[in-house]
Amino acid sequence: MTNILETTSFGATTTTDDVLSGVSLKGKRILVTGVSAGIGVETARSLAAHGAQVVGSARDLNKAKTATAQVRKDAAANGGSFELVELDLANLKSVRACADGLLAKGDAFDVVIANAGVMATPFGHTADGFETQFGTNHLGHFVLVNRIAPLIRRGGRLINVSSAGHRYSNVDLVDPNFERTSYDPMVAYGRSKTANILFAIAFDKRHRDRGLRAAAVHPGGIQTELGRYQDPGRIEKMIDQINQQRAALGKGPFQWRDRRPVLRGLSRQPHRAGRSARSNERRCTRLCDRSKSCRGALEEKRRNGWRVVLTFPITAEEQGTRRNEMIEQKDLAGSFTLPGNSVTLNRMGYGAMQLAGPGVWGPPRDVNTAIAVLRRAAESGVNHIDTSDYYGPHVTNQLIKQALHPYAKDLVIVTKVGARRGPDKSWLHALSRQELVDAVHDNLRNLGLDHLDVVNLRVGGISEPGQESIEEPLTVLVKLKREGLIRHVGLSNVSPQQLAEAQAMTEIVCVQNFYNVARRNDDAFIDDLAAQGIAYVPFFPLGGFTPLQSSALDAAAASLKAIPMQVALAWLLQRSPNILLIPGTSSLTHLRENLQSSLLQIPPEVMADLDAVGTRLTNSTSRGDSAVHRGTVAPARKDALPK
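Above: the chain's sequence. Below: its structure in token form.
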């Protein structure tokens, strides 16, 4: 039998125990931020006392352990549980570490209560350079919630704890850090609390299709250590104003209540703070868009002393995509450190080939969208971009520079040399000494760099490695490496024998060959590279110009409630830990789908079915070149290379 909760009798003195009387929360898992004092402690206690599995976060774990002693006792006595995780909302590195730990554990949440916060603090900045209250109360929760959104069960709830303090100020997206205006602690608090409300509205809109709803609540005037920074005189003045208003309405004076807090009934309509629904929708969208920008390249600029104002144009496609659904920043399937321990890459990267025009020639149809895709990839945690100056030619590198320069410190741009484009748009080998030197300098110039992190020497034919010696062209790259223009060398479209030849000349950090769930010629090669700690980067991971098609892939996708291309990428990530992916796209929607594949876990039995597909196709097809490239760019000669 379903219990119907009667709310008409609840009022200003209602406690959480009153609300939860007779309600069992056994089997429900709930995250509560800020459990070292105040509302957070009492919320955790009440939920755990009614059987919930509560995960509480706190910046100071020692303080939280002391504050939550009663929470543990009530949980143990009533079939609930309680655990603590470390979370400093004023440090986005800590926020991401906390979120990644929860994602790695994989346990879903029924409710997330974003409760933690600070109030009326002296002027200061978070570890990432943002005004303390906006950075902590809003941006910290914004990053956390979006990062762990996949863990919130269908039908789950997000509760943002706001405040009547939102009436002090709207969100100021032009001057969020008080760089142009004088600092007022309550105005700053109001901005952060308004942001909490708008974030809840936007999150609710973007996730309601999967039954996930969000709301912002104002718990009432409660005297806790949250107000320790407030001026007592200002509080008294505020209470006097409230009492004058209450007297005019024939009500008694206001009194602070230091008691178990009230969780008021949630309105079915989002709080609009006196504004129209359309106006709030615009504010919600702008807030979420610009908050996401704060998580990426802008953080690096702020830490280096830049003054950044959060204003920039948004393309029509980008705006439409952002309104439909947000891209949560992900762990991107973990990371892999290249040989030498100086470069660490997230395993889900991005390939820039498709940013150029049709046939990988000339500029894209929509330059603004191409730039938006690059920026969105970087904002979402991608730190490995694969490119080449012969894409376009020159076009993709120029777009990368326009979109991302100056580059974040952890961004690694991997480029290729060994090919060029003919006037007829053909793909030609370019392996002479002068061609390779010119290619390296073209990459440096168009990317705006003084050295290249990784350069892959591209040899072989369309899809198959050759058996010829690569000593002569590799000697050129080794010399450029000694000169400091190249940090690391990789190989593209090579055989194990060519790798061995190259390793006798220099360290090789990665191999980039044609490989996907259906094209499996490099199975043994991948395992050997993994044993050596060398990265394997499959090009055409989704089939190349002609996408992968397989009934088994379709069936696997249906069983996992994903799309076939996501399953194909997830299969590669699970195939071997040294595989790094660089799927390319010029679409924000496809970028989002590709990134989400890093969270997809394929069960062993489905992996076995997909392994069998690759075996059948590999045994029945010796090369597959015409199938991959039919109807696309025609090479100038048999050994021309389209990648």
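The mean pLDDT is 82.
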